[in-house]
Amino acid sequence: NYDDRTPAANQLLLYSNKHEDNTDVITTSGGDPVGMKTASETVGYHGPTLMQDWILLDELAHFSRERIPERVVHAKGAGAFGYFEVTHDITRYTAATVFSNIGKKTPIAVRFSQVAGERGYPDTYRDIRGFAIKFYAEDGIWDLVGNNSPIFFVNDAINFPSFIHALKRNPVTNIRPDYDAFFDFVSLRAESTHMVLMMFTDRGIPASYRQMHGYGANTFSFINAKGEFFYCKFHYLSDQGVASLTQADADRIAGVVPDYHVEDLYNAIESGKYPSWTFYVQIMTPQQAAANKYDPFDDTKVWLHGDYPLIPVGRFVLNKNPSNYFADVEQMAYNVANIIPGIDFSPDRMLQGRTFNYADTHRYRLGVNNTQLAVNAPPSMIHNFNRDGFATIKSQGGAPNYFPNSFNGPRNDPRAKALYPSIPLSAHTQRTDNGSEDNFTQAGLLWTRVLKEDEKQRTIDNMVNWLKQTNKVIAERAIRNFDQVDISLGSRLRQSLQLQFHLTTQVEL
Ligand code: HEM
Fold first, then answer.
1. I need a labelling partner for 397 at 20 to 30 A (CA). Which of 119, 334, 426, 488 fits?
2. β-strands 229-238, 77-86 pairing
3. How would you classify residue 432: left for phi > 0, otherwise alpha for psi between -120 and 50, otherwise beta?
């Protein structure tokens, strides 16, 4: 009886039921009919296989090329499609077409992910979750590549590869986490304290992708039709509410249903329980940014909601599963540099680094023509002067491949020119480490004002689970950062850790 099984478990059966009248024949990848799929072509029964057995060679050669490089981060994930709908007018801040009028709908693709693990990684390990949205806007693609956290570990792109190396596998042992590397790096870069604390709260293991919020985290800018610009942050809050797994449940599930989140999302959408999120922005004027107490372009800090309230904008719904994971999700390419007129970048150093890195990794992972793949292509045609390269799909209809030209090729867009935020800048070039700004006040607010006692205790337990596997000099250095967040946090960590060391290795801190 298949009735009590999930849509994911029944995928093949559902296919079969829908295709009862299927008359397709097997073909080679050239589309030529195949008469016998289960035997190689041999010389006699025991003779060697023939070179001319194209049916065999075609399949073997394709098979050994099935994998492409996985994402260097965020490799494990799940995707779905749906739409974004405007519910509130924010045209006083931005002229972006996706927000042009209440009721306006824009198709979207969303990919959820884990940061640290590889493509087969269990969904319920403690980690930050990626939450990226591709808007197929009428004037091009807007990729909002966020996480389930409003902040990040580091605030200068130059520190990102090192942070990821410390989080991922040890290059000698191939084991992760390497607790020494992780706590060494984060204790030496105190700006990560806020995010490390958040990662060990319940937020570090969501119950499902549907039950977590998303955040753009970096600071962007908006430009309105009058050419005025504002800084902004994006928040998308789950209409399903937020829920997390305990460490014990997560550990158990990892061994039993490693694709727990992927399965949950697929089944929810397939059963018509479409998850949705309410979309908000925070707005900061350039004048407010200049006078703000903390750096508004530092993504290890939130913009306090009391000062910069959440302004409702819209809602998005996921109502369609991918038809093929590889084609639609593995090949999805989110690029922070994909913005539409009315939305722009900011001096946020992480965002600046990100504007380079995504398209670069896509060229490596998917090839130079990745934006021509169906899942990445904008609804409007791509009109530019790039041509050729591996897997060219679109030819741009014979338009000139150079600019300027006298042959009616594509031209500059006056609207995009007008919506450019021209920011007055003047300063000496420099390399100034921004890791020593106030790194502890906001982490202190998280600890003292946001976390309730039961979650505080779980946060201590979760962190000590990692700290106890760390060399004690590094553990002590890490705890000294938490002393500065709040003395009760540091001392509770120290106490709990001493107990753990006592129980396991008899080492005193
Ligand atoms: C994926 C780099 C910071 C969210 C990636 C990928 C790279 C990358 C190379 C793989 C992309 C692919 O293969 O398609 C960087 C760099 C950063 C940075 C250099 C800092 C300088 C961040 C931050 C966030 C974030 C701050 C969240 C606010 C994501 C997400 C994905 C991703 C969600 C997965 C996208 C997908 O689902 O395909 N990042 N990242 N990253 N990054 Fe970042």
1. 334
2. unpaired
3. beta
